[in-house]
Amino acid sequence: MDNSYVIVSGATLDLPRSVIEEYELEVIPMNFSIGGKEYIYHPDEREITCKEFYEKLRAGEDSVTSQITPLVFKEVFGRYLKEGKDILYIAFSSGLSGTYNSGRLMAEELLEEYPERKIVCIDSLCASVGEGFLVYLAGKLRKEGKSFEETVEWVRENHTRVCHWFAVDDLNHLKRGGRLNSIEAIVGTALKIKPVLSVDREGKLTVIAKVRGTKKGMEYLRERLINDGVNVKEQTVMVGHADAPEVAEQLKEQLLSEGLVKEVIISNIGPIIGTHVGGGMFALVFLGENYKF
């Protein structure tokens, strides 16, 4: 592993703790409040578990998230710069949050103080496990001994290849949080219709399809893998879920039993993203070509 640099991202990446630890990733905890109580979400769920969060959300408690502040970026980036390390910051989509710009501006400020160091900020144009998948792949390169420049170059060349598709129970949470600029009428939950979303070339959420029921939702994601993926039989792909472990396991088993992919990593969707998608969401992430539409 090349220890001359560190890979940093925010708690929006929704990676399993085991992956974060294996690849020595720096994940910036993020603040949110639910039911009027403030929490800091860490990947180890030390203040509140994902299960507890979704129980509160389903009970009708309102949740509100906060961006990473410039002061937090200064503390995290500054800590590694003082250690003599370079920084690759892979950010949550700028089409959904101002976090990328905050990190970039702080990086520019700190580089004036540490001109001998390097900080590269890359807009993932991804959300949740899409962002996490890109960070995971960058972490693999670092563990393989790739240099800072080699990893940066790969991420820049491949970040638009990350295909992430996810199905939600309804669009109310996304509407409330302003994460969708234009959507159709509210989906009839009584009909068990699930909107399937992805992101456009600006990293903004877009409703791509509507399917009836969880089974159809899983079938749709599987079809996108087959149609959009490249060399998927050699890939490790990622399945994310918002308190829907049974669905995630079913999707994983289907992909593996059919021999469609090499490996599947299952990850919980944490409170930061969960606030905006609600319980029951499930996602599939993989590498493809010419993905962003």
Describe the structure.
Helix 3 packs across helix 4 (99-113) and helix 5 (129-143) runs antiparallel to helix 6. Strand 6, helix 4 (99-113) and strand 7 form a beta-alpha-beta unit. The strands form 3 sheets. The protein has a 6-stranded mixed β-sheet with strand order 10-9-8-13-11-12, with helices on both faces. The chain has a 4-stranded parallel β-sheet with strand order 2-1-6-7, with helices on both faces. Strands 4-3-5 form a 3-stranded antiparallel β-sheet, covered by helices on one side. The model is unreliable at 182-188 (pLDDT under 50). The chain is an alpha/beta fold and 293 residues long. It is built from 10 helices and 13 strands. The protein is 38% helix and 25% strand. The protein is globular, with a radius of gyration of 18 Å. It has helices at 17-22, 50-58, 70-82, 99-113, 129-143, 148-158, 172-176, 213-228, 245-257, 271-277, and strands at 5-10, 26-28, 30-34, 37-41, 63-65, 86-91, 119-123, 162-167, 193-199, 205-212, 236-241, 263-268, 282-287.
Task: Spell out the key features of this protein.
293 residues, alpha/beta, six-stranded mixed sheet, 10 helices, globular
